[in-house]
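Repro case for the chain-ordering regression, as requested:
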Amino acid sequence: MRIIDLHCDTLTECEKRGLTLLSGQTQLAFDRLGVDGWCQAVAVFMPDTLRGREAVEYFDRVYAFWLAQQDAHRGAFAEAKNLAEDCMPSPECPTAFLTVEGGSVLAGDLSRIAMLAQRGVRMLALTWNGANELGGGQAEDIGLTPIGRQAIPLLEQHGIIVDVSHLGDKGFWEVAGLAKRPFVASHSNARAICGHPRNLTDDQFKAIVQAGGLVGINFYTCFISQDGRDPSPRKLVEHIHHFAALGGEDHIALGSDYDGASVPDWMDRSEKLDCAISLMIKSGLEPALAEKICYKNARAFFARYGADAVGRNHT
Ligand SMILES: [Zn+2]
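-- result from build under test --
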């Protein structure tokens, strides 16, 4: 099986703990993927406590670490510079692309969007759980700020995919109204199956589908089932089937949240994922749907997102 994973915190975790991306001490490591090809979104996680210059310096530090890791492990993985072309790597050399989790990375300065795009950031979650200069997360649901509303078209112009995971419900609907290009929820499940506010309501999922977007299935036990009581393959498949029944079969992907969350032991390391998919298939996931979720939908999304940029007038 091939894998395209829309979210992990491995880069941030390694920088914080003084590890390398191939240390073997993280849930995800590029030297033990065990699949036919893997393309990984690596997030710079922005703590809600950082603002302004502190946030900028923090991002710069993790970004410098990202560059240093690429230099140190040349051949072990490569940066996916063009997602439409580089999201289907060979088994020998996985690819990875940079994302940011938290709009505080802009420090309220929209001119930083161009710099982020130039540095290879391909996706931005507008908030983490709290509020920042762009808007309110699910724990502080104040909607988008005026700067947040202005950020949407600028991100779209610069090819940075807008990510609504962690965003509060109010902000979600503002993004849905403002977005001219497809947007994503990189790591969120179905609220109808597990009623956590980080998961998506049916209407939210349908809005993402309508926009041509993508939703990454999160492996966090507490987003799979209430209080993590039943993080079984069968339960995770319930989320997928629920989304598929809403007309979203072509809009479900993976957003593992590796190294950012406690995930069930049957899939708690990247090298277990191939086997975990087999367990999900044994629990009722159709093999063709499994292939779509693992990589085909994300591949189609990246192609669609690229094509959508051509000739679009963002006035
Ligand atoms: Zn997250």
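Ordering looks correct now. The CA atoms of residues 47 and 178 lie 26 Å apart.
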